[in-house]
Structure to design on (468 residues):
């Protein structure tokens, strides 16, 4: 972990504090209202606001989680730091892709 | 090789850091599945609906409460780190760490009650 | 009230990495320290026991060992405080190569001290005027709060990040680097910031605070490292560091 990775991880963490709080509130609301898929989709479909919010969230979490995974692999497995970094990048890319796909499904399709 | 010094791993702050790391790992494993499931809504929601019906099962609701707990405690653990690293030192951190665990448990419990 | 046993049951680590604990019976004495116990074994029971000490009075840090699971100065650990049930388990310090029995090789610890640039870099010669440093200046107060480190290795031994990450410079080296970062007279900060901002530097610290909990001189390396993180981050964002 060097200063560059540290800055990215702490910055995305700080950014996600409000994003996570909103997300938890949304989950509470949706479960209380016992929303079906149709209910959820009617709210998210064609919504620029939801798309932007979740796009930001997916980008931040992909960076944050991949750096975290990198650290855990480097410290707890026998992988070299370089190899841990490579695996972490793949993980981050996969997460970003799956997240983008989910947003697309909820907002566009 | 025998490890000679294991006792301090019971201290509140060490546990806080370990819970933070383990909850992060658990969330990192959970997230791809979460995104994948949301992507099931792609074709108008039928597949997502069948998933949401599956998630009516009590064991799944319990797991979801667990996830809410993990997310909350990871957030609060992260706040602990951000505060240590960016603000003046305060000695009351052990108490704060314990409080954070209690708050997370309370949030998850409220969620559990609401979904049942 | 249970009677205090007249003898202690003392398990000492014998051998190298592939050694084992051996148990000795040591007479209990009033105001006995753990160092007294180890010394008794070596003098009266087994002269082949290897251990390290010097001042015996809590000033040099040479006698640090793992006592009942915690790294401590054995000369400043009263038996009554840690062995209420009459049992002691004493091993070498963690995270350092073992020479024999209770004596570890401190070389990696000091090498990391150098790597972290925990060395004063002078900015003046003997021909210059002596700089006036006010003890009240915020930087000096900050440096003074961390300056009393005597390199005993207890914090290094207590730190899990040291255990998990062989490149991690460790709490003592980084704590000393922090005192020098706050020293107005020092001219080596460019190189020092690069050293502590690199892989294995201050950013590897997870703030477990085991260092602070165990430091026999009540220092707080976690706080010092937090200061280094802020300083390195600012330098990075200002473009002063290349990463």
């Amino acid at each position: 972990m060097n200063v560059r990775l540290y800055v990215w991880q702490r910055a995305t963490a700080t950014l996600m504090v409000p994003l996570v709080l909103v997300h938890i509130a949304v989950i509470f609301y949706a479960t209380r209202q016992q929303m079906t898929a149709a209910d959820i989709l009617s709210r998210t479909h064609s919504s620029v606001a939801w798309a932007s919010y979740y796009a930001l969230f997916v980008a931040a979490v992909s960076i944050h989680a991949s750096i975290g995974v990198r650290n855990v692999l480097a410290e707890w497995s026998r992988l070299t730091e370089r190899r841990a970094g490579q695996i972490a990048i793949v993980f981050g890319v996969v997460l970003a892709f799956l997240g983008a796909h989910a947003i697309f499904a909820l907002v566009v399709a | 090789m025998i490890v000679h010094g294991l006792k301090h791993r019971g201290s509140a702050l060490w546990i806080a850091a370990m819970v933070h790391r383990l909850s992060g790992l658990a969330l990192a494993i959970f997230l791809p599945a979460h995104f994948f499931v949301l992507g099931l809504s792609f074709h108008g929601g039928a597949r997502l609906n069948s998933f949401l019906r599956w998630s009516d099962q009590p064991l799944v609701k319990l797991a979801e409460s667990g996830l809410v707990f993990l997310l909350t405690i990871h957030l609060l653990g992260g706040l602990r780190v951000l505060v240590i690293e960016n603000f003046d030192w305060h000695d009351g951190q052990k108490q704060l760490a314990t409080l954070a665990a209690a708050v997370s448990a309370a949030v998850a419990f409220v969620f559990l009650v609401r979904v049942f | 009230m249970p009677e205090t046993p007249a003898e202690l049951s003392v398990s000492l680590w014998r051998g190298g990495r592939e050694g084992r604990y051996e148990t000795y019976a040591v007479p209990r004495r009033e105001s006995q320290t753990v160092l007294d116990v180890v010394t008794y074994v070596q003098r009266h029971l087994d002269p082949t026991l290897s251990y390290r000490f010097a001042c015996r009075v809590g000033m040099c840090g040479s006698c640090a060992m793992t006592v009942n699971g915690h790294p401590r100065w054995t000369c400043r650990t009263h038996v009554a405080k840690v062995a209420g049930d009459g049992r002691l388990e004493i091993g070498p310090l963690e995270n350092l190569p073992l020479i024999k029995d209770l004596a570890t090789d401190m070389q990696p610890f000091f090498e990391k001290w150098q790597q972290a640039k925990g060395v004063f870099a002078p900015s003046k010669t003997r021909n210059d005027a002596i700089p006036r440093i006010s003890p009240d200046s915020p930087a000096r107060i900050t440096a003074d709060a961390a300056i009393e480190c005597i390199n005993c290795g207890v914090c290094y031994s207590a730190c899990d990040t040291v255990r998990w990450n062989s490149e991690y410079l460790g709490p003592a080296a980084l704590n000393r680097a922090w005192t020098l970062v706050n020293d107005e007279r020092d001219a080596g900060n460019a190189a020092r910031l690069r050293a502590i901002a690199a892989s294995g530097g201050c950013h590897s610290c997870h703030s477990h605070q085991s260092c602070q909990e165990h430091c026999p001189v009540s220092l707080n390396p976690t706080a010092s490292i937090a200061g280094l993180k802020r300083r390195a981050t600012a330098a990075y964002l200002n473009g002063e560091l290349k990463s």
